[in-house]
Amino acid sequence: MSLNLANKITIFRLLLIPVFAAFILNYKFSGGEKEWLRYTALLVFLIASISDAVDGFVARTFNQKTHLGSILDPLADKLLLVTAIILLSLKIPNMTYLPLWFPILVISRDIFLLMGSAIVYVISGDLKVVPNLLGKATTFFQMTTVLWVLFVFPNPQWVWTIAGVLTFLSGLVYIVRGSKQLTEAQS
Q1: DSSP readout, 144-184?
Q2: How many structural domains is the chain composed of?
């Protein structure tokens, strides 16, 4: 099986995740002294984020939507965000770090969604995952939170609070949708 361009971009994004992590961890272990490490981590995160939009554009525009892409793309998004959120929850000199509740909320929501999806699939034999505006807003604000902290902008608590509320609400929406799919499958 040969990979199309959209899938290659997604795999590239997956490969950027450990690179991002390495720069953030090296920045932490430098005591926050080597600012170029933070700037490079920021650049890698931006490239990964932009490549998400590019691979989606390529897939839609050039009819390169594949089953592999439908699995890898959201996986790459989740891994990038969860990695960034966990690492930015560490105390890093010269940076505000995310409060502990934030990564717990994000990771818990993702675990619930994964488990719920597996349950719906096992019971109904089918799973309909339809992205919605609230889910997209959640991803946007989670990415904005990461960028806000990396840029060391003031008052990041406003951004992570909005991201946290959206994360919680979108989790509820997906739970309701999953419950509805289960009810329909059993009737």
Answers
A1: HHHHHHHHT-S-HHHHHHHHHHHHHHHHHHHHHHHHHHHHH
A2: 2
